[in-house]
Each structure stands twice: as C-alpha cells, then as structure tokens.
Amino acid sequence: MTVAESKENYLALILQWIENNNTTDHVDFTQPHIKRSLRYVYPIFMFLHAMVGIVGLVGNVAMITVMGKRTLYHDQTFFLLGNLAFSDLIKCLFVLPMSLANMLIQNWIFGSFMCFFLPMIQLFPIHASMLTFLTIAIDRYRQIVNPFKARVPAGLCTIAVWVAAVCVVLPHAVYIKYIDLGAFLGERFNGIGICYVNMEKHIEEYLRAMFVTLYAMPLAIIAFLYVKVSAELKARESSPIYVHYNVRNESPRDSQFQDEISSKVTWATDSEHGININSTNSKDFTERATHDSDDDLDIAKEKRTHNYLIAMVTFFAICWCPLNILILVNYFVHEDEDNTGHIDITYITFSWFGFLSTCVNPILFASWRMPSTTKDRLKGYFRFSNKRRRSSQASRTTCAESFVAPPTPSPNESRRLPKKPVSYSNGLSPYHATVL
C-alpha cells in the first residue's frame, strides 16, 4: 500500500463517519476532545502528572543549584549527575506536558511539525539519561579498578551523550505520516490532521533494536561494571596496611626508642609479603602501604557514592521498564473498540510511573549530601515522636489500670496469709503477764 492509497483510505473512513453522525455539524474539531475511555478519569491523571512534574522540576533545579554553590561539578561524577538532572528537567518541562496532552486528546491539533517532532522529543531525554548512567559506570570503573588510565573529560562525555541520543531518535521520523484534513475537507478542518504510524515500514523492528541497544544492553554493562567496582572496593577495605620503620646508626638512646616502636608495630616478614626489611643501620622512618596504586582513595566515601549510584540506576530501570515493554508489544496487539479503553489507561499509567524517576534522583541526592547534623536532627525528631506516642499509650494504660479495684481474697486464701506480728511496749508476752 502506497502513501497515496493510505491517505485515500483514511479520508474515506472520515467522510463515512461524518455522514453517519449527524450530530457533528456543531462540533468544533479545532478544539481538543478528550478520549471517551478517559472522560471520567482524566482529572486524576492530570493531577498525578502535575504533582510529578512540580516535584521533579523543583528537585532537579535544587540539585543543580547545590552542585553549583558547593562547586561539586569539579568532580567528574557530580558533573555527569548534573547532566542527568538537566535531562530530567527537559522531561518535566517539555516531555511530560506534551505526552500527557497526546495521551488524553482524541483529535490531533498540534500541526504537522509536532507530528514528526513529538516522538523524538519524548525519547531522546530518556536515552540521554541511560547513556549518562552508562558513562558514569565506565568512569567509576576506570577510576577505581584502573586508576592509572586517564579519565575522559566529563564535558566531552556530556556532548557525546546528547549527540548520540539525538542521532538514535532521528530515524523515528521516517515511520511517521501526516494527513492535512483542511486541504481535503474544507475550511472546517483547517489546522486539523491525522498523525499516524506507517506500519508498512516495519517500525516494530526499529523499536526492538532501540530496546536492546538503549535499555537492556546498557543495564547489563552497568551491572557488570558495578559488580567489578564493588569487588575492588571490598578487597581494598579488607586488605591490611603495614607500616615499616628502619633505624640506622644505632645508639643507646635510639635502641631504646626502637624497642618502644617494636612493641607497637607489627613487622611484615619476607615470607608473607616478599618485602626485604632491614631493621638496622637506618635513621629515617618510612611508611609503605600495600596499595601503591591509589593511596589517597577514601574507601568509605567511595562505597557510599557507589551505593547511591546503584540506587539511582536501579530506580531508573524499574520506573521505565513497564513503558518500554508496553511500547515493544503494542504493535503486536490488535486494538479494537473492546480493548482500546484498557490500552489507553494502561499506557498513561505506565507513562506516569516512568516519570517518577525524575523525582527519585533529587531525593537520593539530598539524602546523599545531607549533613550528618541534619540527619541526626531528623532522626531525633522521629525518635521523639515515637517516644511521645509510646508515653501517651503507657499513660492511658496506667489510667485504665488505676480504675480497676484489686480482687478480694477468698476465705481460704485469707487463712493462708501471714499474720502481722504484734509488738509490746514492755517486751513481755501475754503468757508472761499472766504468770506475773
């Protein structure tokens, strides 16, 4: 089927629908019309998308502001995280509103340019975020596992990420077709068109390739690199550090000082570490560590950074997984009047779940960079709230118990109770009194 034949088929269907529906005479097709399946639930989805957009916008702006004020962008990892926040800003400002309008409105009123541009702007920030996570994983691997290799500048990596993200979505415009109804049906349909996917070009193969190369494969590479980095950090944390002191020109005073040091320092042997130690004829003291590759590496700090990066990429993968799978199988499902409502609701729900990733990253970043004093204050507040709740419950229990009368003992139990001893002022018992 050629493009001209597809246009004729669409126009014939539209004319037939207009003739069969006499109530369309007073309908303004230039105004947006909500889909019938979403007519009663679209306010809920608008509210949910608005909340995600506002939280994501404020959070990512705050994230970029903190990086700028604290000059964290000098660190290559934080520079790439700033690029990630920038891609999330694009999603909140442009992608989310346009995607929501496209999913809610039945008729296409956005013109021919948006028909070709909207699919690309919906996809390239998501691809940019995934490529940024992949770049961070590669950079962390080179920094920790292979520290002697030079690191690629973060600015160059950012440019490469955005160029690659734009290039991979450009072929999507080949599969989009647009029919201007105003040119065929008169002034009543000026500005109205039909934007559809040309199924003759086999777009499912393109989407399958995008899913593998820009979602599944990057996640597999990131997982492999982070496992290697975790193993390296664990090995460095468990390895001990040996300190060696050498003494020359030994004098009585120096020998006494050396004895004091020998009692506090564990000396490494040649058989254990292959290090030749000369314990005499030395005056200066030297320190050597088992790790000669990167002595300035803060293992605790790197482990903390590593854990937060794993959490970010995990939440990103979980949020966008349902929508990616739905897009992948959407062209294999036959849509008709019976299931079109379920497909619309499922699609808009999965889309909202994907945009939740724009809110997760600022929250994780705030928890990561929050001062310990602020965390202790928050913990103390919640701990005080729990204590106050428990104390109120304990007071209510005590008050309830105070109103309960103690049980009266039975006659048998009263006989078994010990009698209170009676004391006499003269120290004599009644028997002695009667005798006297």
UniProtKB/TrEMBL annotation:
<feature type="transmembrane region" description="Helical">
    <location>
        <begin position="78"/>
        <end position="96"/>
    </location>
</feature>
<feature type="transmembrane region" description="Helical">
    <location>
        <begin position="108"/>
        <end position="138"/>
    </location>
</feature>
<feature type="transmembrane region" description="Helical">
    <location>
        <begin position="150"/>
        <end position="175"/>
    </location>
</feature>
<dbReference type="InterPro" id="IPR017452">
    <property type="entry name" value="GPCR_Rhodpsn_7TM"/>
</dbReference>
<feature type="transmembrane region" description="Helical">
    <location>
        <begin position="345"/>
        <end position="368"/>
    </location>
</feature>
<keyword id="KW-0472">Membrane</keyword>
<feature type="transmembrane region" description="Helical">
    <location>
        <begin position="308"/>
        <end position="333"/>
    </location>
</feature>
<dbReference type="GO" id="GO:0005886">
    <property type="term" value="C:plasma membrane"/>
</dbReference>
<protein>
    <recommendedName>
        <fullName>G-protein coupled receptors family 1 profile domain-containing protein</fullName>
    </recommendedName>
</protein>
<keyword id="KW-0812">Transmembrane</keyword>
<feature type="transmembrane region" description="Helical">
    <location>
        <begin position="206"/>
        <end position="227"/>
    </location>
</feature>
<feature type="domain" description="G-protein coupled receptors family 1 profile">
    <location>
        <begin position="59"/>
        <end position="365"/>
    </location>
</feature>
<keyword id="KW-0297">G-protein coupled receptor</keyword>
<keyword id="KW-0675">Receptor</keyword>
<feature type="transmembrane region" description="Helical">
    <location>
        <begin position="40"/>
        <end position="66"/>
    </location>
</feature>
<dbReference type="InterPro" id="IPR000276">
    <property type="entry name" value="GPCR_Rhodpsn"/>
</dbReference>
<dbReference type="GO" id="GO:0008188">
    <property type="term" value="F:neuropeptide receptor activity"/>
</dbReference>
<dbReference type="Pfam" id="PF00001">
    <property type="entry name" value="7tm_1"/>
</dbReference>
<feature type="region of interest" description="Disordered">
    <location>
        <begin position="402"/>
        <end position="425"/>
    </location>
</feature>
<keyword id="KW-0807">Transducer</keyword>
<keyword id="KW-1133">Transmembrane helix</keyword>
